[in-house]
Amino acid sequence: MSADDGEGGARAAPDRGPRAPLRRLRTALRPRATRGQLLAGLLCAALGFALVVQLRVTQESGLDGLSEPELVRSLDELGDQVQSLELELSDLEQTRRTLESEGDRRQAALRSAQERQESLELLAGTVPAVGPGVRVSVVDPAGGVGRIRLVGVINELRDAGAEVVSVGGVRLVASTDVVDTARGVEVDGRPVTSPFDVLAIGDPARLSATIGIPGGVLDSLENEGATVTVEPREQLRITAVVDPPGAGDLEADPGAAQAEQDDG
Amino acid sequence: MIAVLGLVVGVVVGLVLQPTVPAVVQPYLPIAVVAALDAVFGGLRAVLDGVFDDRVFVVSFLSNVVVAALVVYLGDQLGVGAQLSTGVVVVLGIRIFSNAAAIRRHLFGA
């Protein structure tokens, strides 16, 4: 608060006392039409005018009231913002594309895995099978049909493209064994007796033609004194299944099933 | 009295006319207004001190406004307009506060 703070300037300090300022104020407020007073009034009018105008400008303007450097700065900031947002946008689009293609790949992989699973299940004989095929009934009153003849029938059917085969209610898979025992023929340890009921799913015409080929299985079975009926069916259902050996192992390692099948 | 009347008249005229500020004046108007306010407070203090003089008031008012605008203009040309404006406003604000304190002491004795 230095002495020269008062912009009004100093001429003299005529009266003193506690009430002096108020008296001076009253004196000053008394209108005196001097040239100086009028000029001061004019300046105050200009101040009031400018004050109001400036207040209005500040209130109504977003950008109008900004100076050039401020406008340039805010423009720069907006540009930076736009740039970073665009960068983010392209990043996100990239991510979306990656995720989409990954999703497609996963779906394709899932589909092919499911198809593979179905065909492997059919090969492994763990699920029932339905389709066109033939039913071969071998009535053997003389007991001349043994393991060799039976395996011959099975192999012929397989050669002719039979996908799923069952003999006397036993599903044939890669590891199935057919053996002669004292009581007759056993398939996978289960006795199979005449009449042998062989079901095969595949092309019916081809399967029956293979069975009936001259000098083929049909002839050799009839030579043993058996009666053979071949019955093509449009819809054949093989419900016999085998228990998967160590189900966990099989599912965990599909390659193992493939290997077993190859062995057969 | 005339000064107070003038202030009121100016405010009314500004409200009625609602003029737009020319772009050239825009950056300097706020600073000029603050400078003029400083002059008015100084004048009021001089009145209470009993040393008020019309001529000094008019000159200080005009010079305040012109110098403030000039400083801001110079700052704009030098590329430090925003900072210089802030500086001017701070200085004028300090002066307004000290003048207001002097006025307060005169009127209320505290």
TrEMBL record, chain A:
<feature type="region of interest" description="Disordered">
    <location>
        <begin position="1"/>
        <end position="23"/>
    </location>
</feature>
<protein>
    <submittedName>
        <fullName>DUF881 domain-containing protein</fullName>
    </submittedName>
</protein>
<feature type="coiled-coil region">
    <location>
        <begin position="75"/>
        <end position="102"/>
    </location>
</feature>
<dbReference type="InterPro" id="IPR010273">
    <property type="entry name" value="DUF881"/>
</dbReference>
<comment type="similarity">
    <text>Belongs to the UPF0749 family.</text>
</comment>
<keyword id="KW-0175">Coiled coil</keyword>
<dbReference type="Pfam" id="PF05949">
    <property type="entry name" value="DUF881"/>
</dbReference>
<feature type="region of interest" description="Disordered">
    <location>
        <begin position="242"/>
        <end position="264"/>
    </location>
</feature>
Automatic annotation (TrEMBL), chain B:
<dbReference type="InterPro" id="IPR009709">
    <property type="entry name" value="DUF1290"/>
</dbReference>
<keyword id="KW-1133">Transmembrane helix</keyword>
<protein>
    <submittedName>
        <fullName>Small basic family protein</fullName>
    </submittedName>
</protein>
<keyword id="KW-0812">Transmembrane</keyword>
<dbReference type="Pfam" id="PF06947">
    <property type="entry name" value="DUF1290"/>
</dbReference>
<keyword id="KW-0472">Membrane</keyword>
<feature type="transmembrane region" description="Helical">
    <location>
        <begin position="56"/>
        <end position="74"/>
    </location>
</feature>
<keyword id="KW-1003">Cell membrane</keyword>
<feature type="transmembrane region" description="Helical">
    <location>
        <begin position="24"/>
        <end position="44"/>
    </location>
</feature>
<comment type="similarity">
    <text>Belongs to the sbp family.</text>
</comment>
<feature type="transmembrane region" description="Helical">
    <location>
        <begin position="80"/>
        <end position="98"/>
    </location>
</feature>
